[in-house]
Amino acid sequence: MSDLPLASPPPAAVRLLPEVTLRHGWAGMFNRPLSPRTASLVIALWVTLVGNVSLWSALHKLAGEGEMGRRPLLLGIAIAFMVYGATATLFSVFAGRRVFKPAMVVLLLVAGSVQHFMLAYGIVIDPGMVANVMQTNATEARDLVGLNLFGQLLLVAGPPVVWLYRLHLKPQRAWAAIWRNLLFSLVVLALTLGATLGMYRELAPLLRNHLDLRFNVNPVAPVVSALSAVTKPWRKHRMGPLVTMTAGAALGPSYALAANAARPPLFVVVVGETARADHFGLNGYARDTTPALAQRGVISFTDVHSCGTNTLHSVPCMFSPLGKAGWEGRKAETENLTDVLQASGLAVLWLDNQAGCKGVCARVPNQSTGTAFAPAAEASRTLCAEGECLDRVMLAGLDERIAGLPAERRARGVVVVMHMMGSHGPAYWRRSAPDTKRFSPECATQALAQCDHQALINVYDNSIAETDRFLAATIDWLEARRERYAPGMLYVSDHGESLGEYGMYLHGVPYAFAPEVQKHVPMVLWMDPRLAARSHTDLRCLDRRRNVALTHDNLYPSVLGVMDVASPTYKPALDAIAPCRGVG
């Protein structure tokens, strides 16, 4: 034994081998110090892949149904990159060394919880859902907790939380960390926006037709929705209380004349949806998309521009007494045209075949075709399918609905507002009846960029033809009541639509940058001779003024003028009919 060599320390290189392996092997990659910015990218990748099962499932289903176009894989990769960028941008906000780990743990727990509820109950986390959660009591919350919740928490939050616990963050100087974090956030956000714009043609139809997809982005959507729900009361408070506009509203002198008492006015204001003025045959379009209106003696104003490029903006704006500039710069919400008409003593009714009146009808009687009512049941069977109705359904049972308004108001006059589904895209083929479709072949998919351009024009023009059919039917309905009323109708669309021009589809582009086709809208007036005589309107004079430049700002005073309603908010200079009133 004495001849055996004595044990000696290993060479320095051998002693360092495990440390080198630890630092530079797989284990070293997960244990070496990282900056919070780098760590946020790693966690964002994990959450994008593992915490968005609901989103990936929804996209897989849509791809199977052919709604993601011809390149579903490429579109899916683009969406994954955008989700990753949005998640990394959110996480980078908390890239400060002291707050990073606690913030990530909270966001990971939120992501795990949200994924559980989206998968278990098929919900999306929008501001309304967050508001409901905020009002949930302890008993209700207990009923929602189960083993599956803990399973999702372990899946989504478990591995990254363990990694965060073992992670060493690089020390950072405060000011250097601030500007680096800001620059990092801006770069990630810019890359995300760039990817979005690069796939705009494919993304726009998909996301417009499936708005719920944006609320599936986890945990970005829950965080944004929570901020919206929490700040909504504060934002409404900042807007100030509702400003009254009805003071001084009164019926004009025409109502005092005995000759007019027997036939009070019946005026229908039709709010169109997504109609382009240049696709109306009445305005010189090469195709005769409006043959029925051409036979009804209407006046089509050819140079009308909208207040906005989306319904949420345009509808409240066009009914406001403030005009576009005043409405967009308002400090408080105000009463609108429907309130003033009602305050004057007239009967007012709002009918909606769209996704709500955007608050305009909040204080007047209103009904929606989404709510079944007996008079329209038979029409619903022929005009409604897959939860949607053609606009002609609003005429079904209309007499009964008007009869439900106060009798003393009906005796003075009635104003009915009809909010159309019109040409709402991208599912244009659903906007016209089979016997209205005169232009073929149609683009019968929501992936508009994948359609033949002529097929896209065909399907859109068929929706305009359906609008023509509905407006003509409305005029016919009004004419059938001329022995009881002095009837009239004014139609104007809320905004236009892009049909592939400049690679753009649908609408909603910021007004300053929006193409003309999203702002140039049709406006059509029809007046029975009795209403024209009652309001002292020279229709031949109006016809000569069909090419005058008008905007949504003209709607409010023009309706007040036709109905002879006096109000301090009435602006004669904006009344499109005033120049032809009393000249005949």
Description:
This protein is an alpha/beta fold. It has two domains: 225 residues, no CATH class; 317 residues, Alkaline Phosphatase, subunit A (3-Layer(aba) Sandwich). The protein contains 24 helices and 14 strands. The strands form four sheets. It has an eight-stranded mixed β-sheet with strand order 5-4-8-2-9-12-3-13, sandwiched between helices. The longest helix has 27 residues. It is elongated, with a radius of gyration of 31 Å. The N terminus is likely disordered.
CATH-scheme architecture of the largest domain = 3-Layer(aba) Sandwich
The CATH top-level class label of the largest domain: Alpha Beta
Tell me the major beta sheet: 8 strands, mixed
Tell me the overall shape: elongated
Quickly count the domains. 2
Features:
single chain, 584 residues, alpha/beta, Alkaline Phosphatase, subunit A, 2 domains, eight-stranded mixed sheet, two-stranded antiparallel sheet, 24 helices, 14 strands, elongated
Topology:
Blueprint: H1 12-24, H2 26-31, H3 36-50, H4 53-64, H5 72-92, H6 100-121, H7 127-134, H8 138-144, H9 147-166, H10 174-198, H11 200-209, H12 220-239, E1 250-251, H13 258-261, E2 265-272, H14 291-294, E3 299-305, H15 311-318, H16 323-328, H17 337-343, E4 347-352, E5 366-368, H18 377-383, E6 384-385, E7 388-389, H19 398-403, H20 407-410, E8 414-419, H21 453-479, E9 486-493, E10 498-499, E11 505-506, E12 520-527, H22 529-534, H23 539-544, E13 549-551, H24 555-562, E14 565-566
Parallel strand pairs: 2-8, 2-9, 3-13, 4-5, 4-8
Antiparallel strand pairs: 1-14, 3-12, 6-7, 9-12, 10-11
Helix pairs in contact: 3-5, 3-6, 5-10, 6-9, 7-12
